[in-house]
Amino acid sequence: MIRHLAIIMDGNGRWAKKHGKMRIAGHRAGAETLDRVMGYCRDAGIDYLTVYAFSTENWKRSKEEVSGLMKLLGTFLKSKEKSLVENSVRFRMVGRRDDLPKNIQKAVAALEKKTEKGRFTLLVALSYGGRAEITDAANEIARRAAAGELKLPLDEAAVASFMYAPDVPDPDLIIRTSGELRTSNFLLWESAYSEYYFTDVLWPDFGKEEFDAALESYSKRSRRMGGR
């Protein structure tokens, strides 16, 4: 049984190139795929879906692409409010909020507030990096320790409480599309014992058949968590 699924949504740019389109068209197609996958997750009884939408390294891309992505994100946040509420989906962001444009920060906060009672949780990683998350946690621990608010040393559970979404269970399965075989700085702390599923399918082409194949693969795994 998968409670938390995470996905590295890779291949939008290659999909666009394959179809002779601009890169932003690939990102739009990827957003449509996310809509479908949320439905698959709810039907499968999954409680949490975390998607890697924009990394801390993605700010290095061309200004044109970054601007296009921010506009697409703004459109997504505004256009999905009704459907998220109707489908009882709770929207949450994980990542460095202050990196985002002010209008996006406000839109994110507004959508989080309006969907806070949803039963299924969609976590979108924006300006996110696993190393950045651990660094931010370490800095906050150091600050509180210096202020006398924490007693050291801390155990792993205490450190985990400083991550971006400490109330969310660690992902059971992480899917990466497009054939790349790396974690790309995604959920480094939380994925210590996650299972991985890699597929050559580009994210915009990721459908029910591949989703079911990933879950079938997971069902055959033996998760020992280092116990034996």
3D structure, described in words:
By secondary structure, the protein is of the alpha/beta class. It has one domain: 3-Layer(aba) Sandwich (Undecaprenyl pyrophosphate synthetase). Helix content is 43%, strand content 16%. It has 8 helices and 6 strands, in the order E-H-H-E-H-H-E-H-E-H-H-E-E-H. The protein has a 6-stranded parallel beta sheet with strand order 3-4-2-1-5-6, with helices on both faces. Helix 1 crosses helix 2 and helix 3 runs parallel beside helix 5. The radius of gyration is 18 Å and the shape is globular. The mean pLDDT is 95.
**Domains (count):** 1
Give the percentage of residues in beta strands. Answer: 15-25%
Unreliable sequence segments: none
By CATH, the topology is Undecaprenyl pyrophosphate synthetase
For the record, give the distance between the C-alpha atoms at the N and C termini, rounded to a whole number: 21 Å
Q: How would you write the strand order of the largest sheet? A: 3-4-2-1-5-6
Structural class: alpha/beta
Major β-sheet annotation: 6 strands, parallel
Q: Please state the second-level CATH architecture.
A: 3-Layer(aba) Sandwich
Helix content: 40-55%
Mean pLDDT: 95
Shape: globular
Q: What's the name of the CATH homologous superfamily?
A: Decaprenyl diphosphate synthase-like
Number of helices: 8
Helix-strand pattern: EHHEHHEHEHHEEH
The Cα radius of gyration reads: 18 Å
